[in-house]
Amino acid sequence: MSQRTLVLLKPDTVRRGLIGEIVGRIERKADWRITALEMRVLDRALLEQHYGEHVGRPFYEPLVEFMASGPVVALIVEGERVIEGVRALAGPTDPIAAQPGSIRGDYGVIVRENLIHASDSEESAERELKIFFPGRA
């Protein structure tokens, strides 16, 4: 069954010049397709909508500030088991726990700046795609 997911290449990915490397890893998966790609700076209103379930948690404000600190690359990726697959490709949030070969295992430095966001379920993907790509959701 084909799925769609949102992938965000975070400001640290852009600052470190890793866009091509990460997009290339996604493109090399045989059954995955990037069907939309856009670079933009995210405003607070969009970030509040995206991270709304985390309001009040200690990491919320630093996360919103980080995500607004520079441009991100937003992608729609489609393919077989793409939600689970992109999350495996990204690796765990903590780069120390991430295996070599995963994006965070190869390039991650600290937990808060962890290079990539990928929807964690079909429900999240549907909600997040409506936020970031309302005309294509």
UniProtKB/TrEMBL annotation:
Q: SUPFAM superfamilies in the record, alphabetically?
A: Nucleoside diphosphate kinase, NDK (SSF54919)
Query: Has the keyword Magnesium been applied to this entry?
Result: yes
Q: Which InterPro entries match?
A: NDK-like_dom, NDK-like_dom_sf, Nucleoside_diP_kinase, Nucleoside_diP_kinase_AS
For activity, the cofactor(s) needed are: Mg(2+)
| Catalytic activities | a ribonucleoside 5'-diphosphate + ATP = a ribonucleoside 5'-triphosphate + ADP; a 2'-deoxyribonucleoside 5'-diphosphate + ATP = a 2'-deoxyribonucleoside 5'-triphosphate + ADP
Q: Give the residues annotated as active site.
A: H117
The cellular location(s) given in this protein's UniProt record come to: Cytoplasm
What GO terms in the biological process aspect are recorded for it? CTP biosynthetic process; GTP biosynthetic process; UTP biosynthetic process
Please give the start and end residues of each transmembrane region. Answer: none
Please provide the record's keywords in A-Z order: ATP-binding, Cytoplasm, Kinase, Magnesium, Metal-binding, Nucleotide metabolism, Nucleotide-binding, Phosphoprotein, Transferase
Q: Name one GO cellular component term.
A: cytoplasm
Please explain the role this protein plays, according to its UniProt record: Major role in the synthesis of nucleoside triphosphates other than ATP. The ATP gamma phosphate is transferred to the NDP beta phosphate via a ping-pong mechanism, using a phosphorylated active-site intermediate.
* Protein's name according to its UniProt entry: Nucleoside diphosphate kinase
Species, as recorded: Streptomyces phaeolivaceus
